[in-house]
Each structure stands twice: as structure tokens, then as C-alpha cells.
Amino acid sequence: MTDLAGERERLVRSLARNGIGDERVLEAVARVPRERFVPQHLVGDAYADRALPIGEGQTVSQPWVVARMTELLDVRPTDHVLEVGTGSGYQAAVLAQLVHDVVSVERHAPLAESAAARLAELGYGNVRVVLGDASAGYAPDAPYDRIIVTAATPLIHPELAGQLAPGGRLVAPVGSEQVQELIVRHADGREERHGGVQFVPLLGRAGFRRDGERDGPPPGPR
């Protein structure tokens, strides 16, 4: 039987060796059981530092990327956060330990439903999962102190950036469907670039549209 607790400890040590320097982020990763956020047949790979498929053409991101994006967000305990793309809920679970609350929007109903149930079962009561297209943000709960986009986007949509509170910041992988760069956008319009990454594409009206694709369902509580 795999020693999952030991594997998690080894992963956290590896993240620290590979440039993740924020102790708060490392501690948050150390407390999240990633095996609960991957399909049952992949539990043995839960602490491999790579993305894993979760269905609906989506993945749970590589732990190093989750930690790095969380670090770049520079979150505070009082922050109100928007996550664009819930997936399995793993990124939201890491953030939930570090901020006041997370609004996480997912366009795929099966993922939204399973993530909401999983997060509630694990006690992450400050995460609210919403079903819908958040590629251009989620205005009902704006403004946000921090926004994180967890899929590749062709640009930081002005409507999304406009939902940042004064002094806020947004982290997103921006580029083509094949390769992107991690961008930090500040509320005053300044941008920082933080290296190449690869994510599945963000779909929706402000993301990558497929031929004949219709907009996802209107956002609603899940």
C-alpha cells in the first residue's frame, strides 16, 4: 500500500527545493490530501509532480504550478478570491487555507458538482462552487482582492481585470493553446511575466471557442 502521507511530505520537500519559498504555501499544500482530488485509479500517482486527467478533457494541475500560482497571488487572510476553473477543487482547497473565501466557477457540471461535494466533505466551508462560464469573470461577487485563472487564456479579458479591487492582483497562464506564460496583472494595469507553462485551454466567451460551441450555462450556485 502506498504511504500517501509520506509521499505528500516528499512532494512538499521537492517543491521547496525547486523554488517555492513561501512557507505558508508549502504548509497549505502539506495539508491538502491530493489523493482525494484525482480519480480513484490514479491515487497512486497523486503526489507525482505532474498534471493528471480528471475527466471532461480537464486536468488537476501539477503541484509545483499550483504552489507557484498561489505564491504569485501573494494572498492575505482577509482576501476575497475568484478562481476561474474549479476542476477537481485542488487549487481551491490550497487557497481556502490562506484566504477569507474563494468563489470558484466551473463550466462543466459534473466537475462542479463533484468538486463542491468533495470540498464540503473535506471541510473547506469557505469555498463556494458556481456552475457557469467565468472566462470574463463573475460579476455578482466582484470586486475580488485576488483572481486566479487555472486554464490557458488567449488574453486577460478587460471585464475580468475590471473585477479586481484596488490593490488587487490576477494570475493567469496567457498565450496560445499550446504554450503560455504565467502573467501577474495588477489592478493598476502593471504586468509581470513569470515563465512558461502548459494548461488545458479556457473555453467560453473570453477564452478559446470551439467551432459551433455555444456559451456554457449561466452561472448559478452549486
Please summarize what this structure is.
It contains 6 helices and 10 strands; from the N terminus they run ααββαβαβαββαββββ.
Major sheet: arrangement of strands: 9-8-7-6-3-4-5-10
Number of helices: 6
Task: Give the overall silhouette.
Answer: globular
Parts with pLDDT < 50 across at least 5 consecutive residues = 211-218
Q: Kindly report the average pLDDT value.
A: 92
Radius of gyration: 16 Å
Largest sheet: 8 strands, mixed
Gap from first CA to last CA: 35 Å
**Helical fraction:** 25-40%
**How many extended strands?**
10
Proportion of strand residues: 25-35%
Structural class assignment? alpha/beta
Run of helices and strands = HHEEHEHEHEEHEEEE
Throw out a few tags for this protein.
222 residues, alpha/beta, eight-stranded mixed β-sheet, two-stranded antiparallel ribbon, 26% helix, 26% strand
What do these coordinates show?
This protein has 222 residues and is α/β, with parallel strands linked by helices. 26% of the residues lie in helices and 26% in strands. The chain has 6 helices and 10 strands. It has helices at 4-17, 23-31, 63-73, 90-96, 109-121, 158-161; strands spanning 52-55, 58-60, 80-84, 101-106, 127-131, 144-149, 164-175, 180-186, 191-197, 220-221. The strands form 2 sheets. It has an 8-stranded mixed β-sheet with strand order 9-8-7-6-3-4-5-10, covered by helices on one side. The protein has a two-stranded antiparallel ribbon with strand order 1-2. α6 (158-161) links the parallel β6 (144-149) and β7. α1 (4-17) packs antiparallel against α2. The longest helix is centred in the first third of the chain and has 14 residues, at 4-17. The radius of gyration is 16 Å and the shape is globular.
